[in-house]
Design goal:
Number of domains: 1
Structural class: mainly alpha
Radius of gyration: 15 Å
Number of strands: 0
Distance between the termini: 32 Å
Order of helices and strands: HHHHH
Number of helices: 5
Strand content: under 5%
Length: 104
């Protein structure tokens, strides 16, 4: 995914946050892989996963970008948006299906 696509999704016009956005993008890719087993390469090679992976990446990046101040207490402490949790579960399920096919 290109930086311009991320900025368009977040509705950012300027270049002040380019370094931060690039850093967050790298972190989201690692987070998604650790949470689901799906790598960016796996997603891009599988048309079924590509858009789901990219959407998950954008939503997670937006969440981290918009919540840069750590929240230490309260009802939302360590909670991700329900839709993001659901996307992680879908990606993980696809990974398990792919793994099962590879092992067969």
């Amino acid at each position: 995914m290109e930086l311009n696509e991320i900025k368009q999704y977040l509705r950012i016009d300027g270049d002040e946050d380019n370094e931060l956005l690039s850093s967050l993008y790298l972190a989201t890719k690692s987070y998604i892989e650790n949470a689901t087993g799906i790598t960016e390469d796996m997603a891009q090679e599988n048309g079924k996963l590509k858009e789901l992976y990219n959407l998950t990446n954008k939503i997670l990046l937006a969440h981290w970008y918009e919540n840069r101040v750590p929240q230490m207490t309260g009802p939302n402490f360590h909670k991700l948006d329900f839709s993001l949790e659901s996307l992680f579960l879908q990606l993980e399920a696809e990974y398990l299906k792919m793994k099962r096919v590879d092992e067969a």
